[in-house]
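Lab meeting minutes (informal)
Scribe: AK
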Amino acid sequence: MLITVPASPGGIMKTVNYGGRCFWIFALALCFAAPAFAEQKTVVLQVDNMPCASCPIMVKTALSKVKGVTSAEVSLKSHSATVRYDDAVTNIETLMKATANAGFPSRLAVEKGKK
């Protein structure tokens, strides 16, 4: 992009090529903006193997350690885990694997989409 700008207070004009710089500034800004395009999703996992009061704590801890999880709420009463996560970083299979690795296999109950 060629832009004509005053070169000095005396009124002499010069043409400056900003094309290359603008492209790189835009590309750099786009790289840093990419996380803004990530989508927050909420999923409810059914966790059947939780017989005691400490089980939800272990499930929540396992889910919270997964990169991309922003919150995890686990209910002993409903045997479920409600998880908010960044779908650009993790997915439902990884969440279910995390609960299974902690000794609490889970399955998809509800996927709520954007939140």
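Next up, CB showed the second protein from the same session:
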Amino acid sequence: MNPNRSGYPADSLSVTQLNLYLMCPLKFRFQYVDRLPKPFKPVALVFGGAIHSAIEWWHRKRMESYDPEPKEVVRIFRADFTPKRRAKSLTRMAIPKRILSIRVAAC
């Protein structure tokens, strides 16, 4: 039995996968069968990642016996939290034509 990308055997579903299928079969198909990229990344996730990067950078510099100025830490945060990284627009995504041609009621 070959495991799928989430580590489960190919003939089994996780609770999350099952709940998504019950909520919206089309969304399940896009995510787990067609494996389409998500159209955007939530801002909270990008913000948290930028905070994490800045703190990690600060910590590494401290381990190297360097005490960074707060301005430097803010610069690292801003470099990761730019409008480009906040969300991808659907218009810039490469959406396969077969997906665009599907006409179904919204879930």
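CB comment: The longest helix spans residues 43-63.
No objections, moving on.
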